[in-house]
Known about the structure:
The structure is a single chain. The protein is an all-alpha fold. The protein is built from 4 helices and no strands. The mean pLDDT is about 95.
Amino acid sequence: xxxxxxxxxxxxxxxxxxxxxxxxxxxxxxxxxxxxxxxxxxxxxxxxxxxxxxxxxxxxxxxxxxxxxxxxxxxx
Length: 76
């Protein structure tokens, strides 16, 4: 995001995939469908949005979009 990459760029999707794999390694099995649900929650629940956007305003929505783009590329 800080590099100006769009959420559906290879770099953003790769970062989203790393995020998903980190969840799977450290917490629970997180398939792409579950990851999309998490991304949606990051925006739908203001508590998540507020917390994530502390790092960078707009980050929650960017993450949601990158997660969705990553899931779409893995379903092709």
